[in-house]
Amino acid sequence: MNTSDGADRLEAFRAYRDRMNERILEEKDHLGIKRFFNLDSAAYRDGALDGGTKELLGLVASMVLRCNDCIDYHLQQCIEQGFSDEELEDAMNVALVVGGSIVIPHLRHAVETIDLLREEKEKASE
Amino acid sequence: MNTSDGADRLEAFRAYRDRMNERILEEKDHLGIKRFFNLDSAAYRDGALDGGTKELLGLVASMVLRCNDCIDYHLQQCIEQGFSDEELEDAMNVALVVGGSIVIPHLRHAVETIDLLREEKEKASE
Amino acid sequence: MNTSDGADRLEAFRAYRDRMNERILEEKDHLGIKRFFNLDSAAYRDGALDGGTKELLGLVASMVLRCNDCIDYHLQQCIEQGFSDEELEDAMNVALVVGGSIVIPHLRHAVETIDLLREEKEKASE
Amino acid sequence: MNTSDGADRLEAFRAYRDRMNERILEEKDHLGIKRFFNLDSAAYRDGALDGGTKELLGLVASMVLRCNDCIDYHLQQCIEQGFSDEELEDAMNVALVVGGSIVIPHLRHAVETIDLLREEKEKASE
Amino acid sequence: MNTSDGADRLEAFRAYRDRMNERILEEKDHLGIKRFFNLDSAAYRDGALDGGTKELLGLVASMVLRCNDCIDYHLQQCIEQGFSDEELEDAMNVALVVGGSIVIPHLRHAVETIDLLREEKEKASE
Amino acid sequence: MNTSDGADRLEAFRAYRDRMNERILEEKDHLGIKRFFNLDSAAYRDGALDGGTKELLGLVASMVLRCNDCIDYHLQQCIEQGFSDEELEDAMNVALVVGGSIVIPHLRHAVETIDLLREEKEKASE
């Protein structure tokens, strides 16, 4: 599989996300919006449930609500947390059954993202 | 808290669910629909991820998609799987942050259901 | 199956619908809202597609968007248009596959509504 | 129009809402959930936009997302802020056009709620 | 109208769809996901309702749930089933009325896709 | 910030929107669809609520329903109506709290669009 375009896709997403988050949080500086971003980060920290499980919950929520950017973000976190491909597929299967065939285009996107993230990791460890 | 109405609510939900599932699966007997129900059950069995984690994923998916019947069903399974109140609250917090304040009415419903399920369990073990 | 409560449910839905539609269209008399209601009715009249097919489309759209009142309304129209139980089940199966298990509570509701509507028709023809 | 059942509906909603909010905020006391509730309240306070306009925004958001409890809550706030029936109808018309006929059952609910709230206010001022 | 970019869009969609479906079904080989894909295909086969009507149901479900990839897929099937432009417009009108103005960007996409598919067919028959 | 790509994005969106609207309204000429487009335009005209407030309602509805094209269109109207950045941020904060973190990618998009629209306006007034 040729994933060179795909790799650019991940980098472009990260760059855009960083640039706009900075624009929103540093420059716009709206108190309510800033507090929401903080609350969002806090929701995935270790607590009664560990951070890994919470990222998996975030992934499935993002899939049934069908948001590719959110899926990419949570997949990145899930892979950093050490989930295997088989575990991620089990989670995505739950999302598929709950959310239906309308989730399938996002499943394709997610599987591509997983491949790209694994490839990045391999390159980084060479 | 007086939860007598609430307890009836859980029983009424279970009775209606059983009656209509029987009507759909036994009497209607549509192959596609039956296969969907089987696939749905299979998605929560132990696999690469254990059944408990999958039920938690089902709970959060149900909350962000805002379906009270689905929430009640997955809460029942989660409590049978042994999740504590604190763990369920952490999961529901992820659903609240991802799905927004529109999830709050379903959070109220879910917290009531948890109380009712704990009460049932206590009575059963008396 | 005892459907006496269910029969009341259909009557209560129709009475509430009629009362509030009258309140909205006759008394409130907001031009934009009235025109929307007219456009809504017109969308299901015979055209390039016949009215029956359009009602079936309305049913599936209502199921994947998970609106019980809309489901009940379109089921009533579909049955008046002469669709058989098997045809309705085929349509609901498409809704189930596209929309996922989150549609199941609405499938239960829909199957009960079909039973109630068939029962009404039988009584009326006695 | 006989709205006695309806009046009970508003009271039942408020009682349930208060009871469960207390259960969630006082007893459950989950930090993330409490902070979310605070953020939610803060979003509707006077700022660059006045609180009234924000409640109207909350109403339209609740209608297109189709949450009756949220609609009832924001209608109450909108009426306290002094919006006329005609202004509320204009806002609901935007929700109807953006969200489609699937919003109609919630429009019926909203119009009933407005009637009930006006009636309450009249009684209170007698 | 210059649709050369558009034609590339259809080809790119098909190539991506085929590549990722193969990756998911052949290589990933997750039993639940594979069974879901089979169930999805089966839902559109001739039954009590003919396959054509089912594709039209799939199209309207995809439009109200606002998924461009799903719209493109079902439009392709609908055109293979022989639906005329006028019939497709009637179906899309139902989707527009049920789903509201939020569907309009997807209506634009769908009309472009229909044009591209008709153009392809013409070229193929030259 | 380099927004040259972004500026092209706005122009490309407007050109595509105009081209497809003309294709739909002038050439396709489906009565129901045309009437829907008229109803859509009419919903934002001055009435009991002024057109500016209605555009703000349309913006928030578009954000919670997560439609970037709709967000871009309403932002353009809001800025023509004279809303300040701070007012738009207050409105978007309501959308964020109601709709949850799933709205964040659309918030990024919206903030970029506001920047691009302000830039266009500056250039035009030079």
Automatic annotation (TrEMBL), chains A, B, C, D, E, F:
A molecular function (GO) held by this record is: peroxiredoxin activity
InterPro entries in the cross-refs: AhpD-like (IPR029032), AhpD_core (IPR004675), CMD-like (IPR003779)
All residue ranges annotated as the Carboxymuconolactone decarboxylase-like domain in the record? 35-112
Q: Note the NCBIfam families from the entry.
A: ahpD_dom (TIGR00778)
* Name this polypeptide is given: Carboxymuconolactone decarboxylase family protein
